[in-house]
Amino acid sequence: MPSISNRGGHMPPSPIRKLVPFADAAKKRGTKVYHLNIGQPDIETPKAILDAVRHTDMTVLEYSPSAGFDSYRKKLVTYYKRNDIDVTTGNIIVTTGGSEAILFAIMTCMDPGDEIIIPEPFYANYNGFAITSGVKVVPIPSGIETGFALPPIEDFEKAVTPRTKAIMICNPNNPTGYLYSAAELNTLKEICLKHDLFLLSDEAYREFCYDGRKHISALSLPGMENHAILLDTISKRYSACGGRIGAFVTRNQQVLDAAMKFAQARLSPPSFAQILGEAAVDLPADYFDGIHAEYNARRDLLVKRLTAMDGVVCPTPGGAFYAIAQLPVDNAEKFCQWLLESFSHNGATVMMAPAAGFYATPGKGRQEVRLAYVLNTDAINGAMDCLEAAIKEYNSQTKG
Amino acid sequence: MPSISNRGGHMPPSPIRKLVPFADAAKKRGTKVYHLNIGQPDIETPKAILDAVRHTDMTVLEYSPSAGFDSYRKKLVTYYKRNDIDVTTGNIIVTTGGSEAILFAIMTCMDPGDEIIIPEPFYANYNGFAITSGVKVVPIPSGIETGFALPPIEDFEKAVTPRTKAIMICNPNNPTGYLYSAAELNTLKEICLKHDLFLLSDEAYREFCYDGRKHISALSLPGMENHAILLDTISKRYSACGGRIGAFVTRNQQVLDAAMKFAQARLSPPSFAQILGEAAVDLPADYFDGIHAEYNARRDLLVKRLTAMDGVVCPTPGGAFYAIAQLPVDNAEKFCQWLLESFSHNGATVMMAPAAGFYATPGKGRQEVRLAYVLNTDAINGAMDCLEAAIKEYNSQTKG
Q1: Using CA atoms, how far apart are residues A58 and A103, in angstroms rounded to an integer?
Q2: Least CA distance to A7: which residue of chain B?
Q3: What are phi and psi of A229, to 5 degrees?
Q4: Hey, which bits of chain A come out as E strands?
Q5: How far apart are CA A100 and CA A38, in angstroms?
Q6: Has residue B213 got a pLDDT over 70?
Q7: Are B241 and A43 an interchain contact pair (Cβ–Cβ within 8 Å)?
Q8: Strand partners of residue B138
Q9: B258 dihedral zone (left: phi>0; alpha: psi -120 to 50; beta)
Q10: Strands A246-250 and A353-354
Q11: Distance (Å, rounded) from C-alpha A67 to C-alpha A269?
Q12: Is the preceding omega at residue A175 within 30 degrees of 0, hence cis?
């Protein structure tokens, strides 16, 4: 029997999906599971954009151009302009989800053995794309004690080697919810210009910023025209995760030309969800207001409930819809599995993502979990009731 | 300015799309262009399956499971059974087009530096996926003089090295239209078992077989359970190229487990077109009959017209909707560009794909073109009138 590849062997299984069989078993036993483990928003996809797909009058479901429909790219220019990102259709390649934008960026900018610096904890699938492409992730620590702020410039400087080709950030951040400030982005700019590095900026959660703060895109940093690559997706923005439409955006023409060849090799991004994405740019200007208010309320409640628990630390996230909490348990992974296997409170339990899977450094994040506040406030209260009771019961068992 | 990667530099531009600017210019001049250059079927997508998408009542466009919707995978089991391919849902990972199935197979089976043997000419994007993954394509020649039959077993034996991990075929073949016989598939089986190689079988054109011949899937070869990987797509089958739905199918559990990790890293295949694909399995049993008859008529006409021209060689293709023709011109690429730049006949010209782009060996296929018979018989007659006149005019100019 022929053997699989080393890279196939080394690919990490999804740390988020590892606990799914335990959740399934809990549900089979009749236990309600509060899903705070995955970034699948519960917010309805706007009916108007689903209707755009429903009302399509196409007769042949043709390939779109490899860079995406021209009409959609034109709409995206409008969308970006509204967000202070000044680009042309020629700067945009429509991708199959944000995932493909990440893969195109890594493939286009880096060869096997090259290094990419990423503040940890980070979106776990970056590891998968790095292994796919033979690129080495060099993590630098951002910790719960600083609320997951950008690591100091010295940490970046220490991590740079002759093989370093890029820095990657997710802003606002998944899994920490951290929103980078103008000063932090300028620090990144300084390092990228000094060492001639690409800045790969995953801005999937651009719309989700709280406390009146504004998101700053890597593409709006002057002087970074040849260094900044924006990796985008409509998944979270419009609750359209299943559409699989994202975008790869840069002003660097060499990068665009090379990325287009990867885009041509896979022929085209999905047509239906491009129609949806195009309609989304015409949603009313106040579309995000209600969603903002809802997520803001959820975030406030979640952080309030968590920090009220003995021994729980949870920095207030500035963006996205995630928070990382440090729990007073010996091992968050064990605890999360125990929650699904052996615990219930009022017939319910809670599913969270153990944060160790988001760190590249072994042993880090051992007591931390990531919570996605993609449930309404009643459900968050229910989940927090479970968690509070669970911590006590778990510790009395493990310490008793 | 940071430099792009070597692999980004080495990625081949699409040989099919290279002539597009010349075609656009011809259209601007008012010249009608018969597009025989690209495998975009003109056949309408069945209304019933577009309607399945139009009538969807979802409220949240959620991620599907990474392996695809269970309901769709169940339908696919039915579809494959009808085609003498006996698999379970667990053998199937739904992919984003056939393209992603190809990439998953290469990534899962091969490491950088490993070799894959492919009879040439072959689908040009295989080169792109090989460069993406650092894998070396080892071409072995199949020629127009044998009608593009499978190369003799000795040619495979000579090409096998310690780094060889797989053989890849496209059956029926793009670009040659060749349909492999049971004897040829048994030859491939023999080599794969002897040298412990994977057989990657791209069967995008399964439904398109002529002269009453039956397609034989690599997955129905007994003894190849751990060696055969089927790469599939609904693009051509149902004229659904823009849906971007394919499938990666194998009975090798190690391969499935590893491929699933690549599938998880990109989260999920597009939801809308899975709904379309699911509805397609319920199309009436006679759905393909009319389509067969139509393509058969087109093929017969195309080959008749081509072989009636002085100095043109065109083996009759047994499947798919492509033919390769050898033309009495010095350089088919130059000729194809000239057709678009400098020629018209009754206000029209014809666009074809120069076949050199489908060969890995430099200099091969210099006089050959690939023709996709994705236009109706009237248009094919129009295109052939153009081609016949063009060959004469081109040769009188270049020789005169």
Answers
A1: 31
A2: B111
A3: -125, 125
A4: 32-35, 92-95, 115-120, 136-141, 164-170, 198-202, 228-233, 246-250, 322-326, 348-351, 353-354, 368-372
A5: 19
A6: yes
A7: no
A8: B117
A9: alpha
A10: unpaired
A11: 8
A12: yes
- Dump pLDDT digits (tens) for B245-254: 999 999 999 9
Q: Is the dihedral of CA B205, B201, A243, B17 positive or negative?
A: negative
Tokens 């996709």 map to which residue? B372
Answer yes or no: are the C-beta atoms of B276 and A61 closer than 8 Å. yes
Task: Round the average pLDDT of chain B to a whole number and report it.
Answer: 96
Question: For B326-340, what is the mean pLDDT?
Answer: 97
What is the H or E stretch that residue A299 is in? helix A287-307
Contacts for B258 with CB less than 8 Å, ≥ 6 apart: A4, A5, A8, A9, A11, B108
Average pLDDT over residues A7-25: 89
- More confident: B41 or B217: B217
For residue B85, what pLDDT is reported?
A: 97
Spatial neighbors of B298 by CB under 8 A, at least 6 apart, are B321, B373, B375, B376, B377, B380
Six token digits for residue A394: 């778990």
Interface test with A, best of B16, B60, B125 (most A CBs within 10 A): B60
**Cβ proximity of A194 and A218 under 8 Å:** no
pTM to 2 decimals?
A: 0.96
What count of other Cβ atoms lies within 10 Å of the Cβ of residue A355? 28
Cβ neighbours of residue A187 closer than 8 Å, sequence gap 6 or more: A150, A153, A156
User: Residues of A381-400 as b/e, b for ≥16 C-beta within 10 angstroms?
Assistant: ebbbbbbbebbeebbeeeee
Choosing among A261, A374, A376, which should be mutated to test the B contact, i.e. which has the most B CBs within 10 A? A261
pLDDT band at A400 (very low <50, low <70, confident <90, very high): low
What is the rounded CA–CA span in Å between residue A102 and residue A105?
5
Structure tokens at A205: 């959660």
Query: Where are chain B's structural domains?
Result: 6-44+287-399, 47-280
Report the percent of chain B where pLDDT is more than 90: 95
Tell me if A141 sits within 8 A of A173, measured CB to CB: no
Check whether domain B6-44+287-399 has CATH 3.90.1150.10, yes or no? yes
pLDDT at B400 over 70: no
Banded model confidence at residue B398, pLDDT cuts 50, 70, 90: confident
Mean pLDDT over B109-116 rounds to: 97
Query: Residues of A with CB below 8 A from B270's CB?
Result: 96, 242-244, 270, 272-273
Taking the C-alpha atoms of residue A188 and residue B117, their distance in angstroms, rounded to an integer, is 45
Distance from CA of A311 to the nearest CA of B (A): 34
Under CATH, what is the fold of the domain A47-280? Aspartate Aminotransferase; domain 2 (3.40.640)
Structure tokens at A227: 């260094």
Q: What is the pLDDT of residues B71-87, one digit of tens each?
A: 999 999 999 999 999 99
B242/A63 Cβ within 8 A: yes
User: Per-residue pLDDT averaged across A326-336, rounded?
Assistant: 97
Q: What's the rounded mean pLDDT across residues A365-372?
A: 97
Surface-to-core class of residue B56, CB atoms within 10 Å of its CB (0-12 exposed, 13-18 middle, 19+ buried): middle
Q: Indicate the helix (H) or strand (E) that contains B106.
A: helix B97-109
| Nearest Cα residue in chain A from B252 | A1
pLDDT in tens, A198-237: 999 999 999 999 999 999 999 999 999 999 999 999 999 9
Output the CA–CA distances (angstroms, integers) from residue A221 to A189, A254, A391, in the order listed: 8, 19, 44
Average pLDDT, chain A: 96
Token pair 């001639």: residue: A196
Nearest chain B CA: its distance from A356 CA (Å): 17
Alpha carbon dihedral A365, A369, A370, A374, in 10-degree steps, equals 180
Instruction: Report the CATH architecture of A6-44+288-399.
Output: Alpha-Beta Complex (3.90)
| Interval B189-215 mean pLDDT | 96
